[in-house]
# Entry
Amino acid sequence: MSGNYRNNHEPRHTIGVLVENQPGVLSRVAGLFSGRGFNIESLTVAETNEPGMSRITLVTTGDQYIVEQIIKQLNKLINVIKVLDFSDTEFVEREMALIKVRADGRSRAEILRIVDIFRAKVVDVSPNSYIIEVTGDEGKIAAILELLGQFGILELARTGKAAMARGKKDIHKKKKNDNGM
# Structure
C-alpha cells in the first residue's frame, strides 16, 4: 500500500518522539515523512522539563507495517533520543482550539451556554463575534465545532495533539543502545 494513499479506514497512530533541541531536527522528522509519501495529520513540538530536549507528538495513519517502518526510520535519525508509539498503551491526549464564531444579539446567550457546557471560555468579545478557547480530546473539539457551526464559524486555529502515556511508562527513560545496554 502506498503511503500517498489516504484510506479513511486506516488506523490513526499517535507517536511521541523525544529529541535533542537542536536546529534542523523538526525538518529532518518532517522530511522523513514527506520523502516517503506519508502524511502527518497533526504535529506538536515544544521543549520538555529536561534541559536541551524537545518532545514531538505527531499523528499519522497507516497499517501496522507502515507505522513500524516510520518508527524504525525515526530511530535512525540523528538527535532522536526515543520514539514511543502510543498504539499499545493507555494515554491521555489533548488539543486546544481557538474558535471565532459569529455572535449577534440573538445568539450570544445560546453560544455562552454551549461554552459553559463544554467548560470552554470566551477569550475575546467584539460587537459581532466571540473567540472561544476549548481544550479536550478530538471528540470534544469536534462536538463543540458542530454546535457552534450553526452560528457561523469565522475562523479556526487548532493545536496538534499532545499525548502522554498513563502510569509508569515514560518517554524520558533512555532507550537501549545497539549493544542492549
Remarks:
- DSSP finds four helices and nine strands in the chain.
- The two ends are 36 Å apart (CA to CA).
- Confidence is low (pLDDT under 50) at residues 1-7, 176-181.
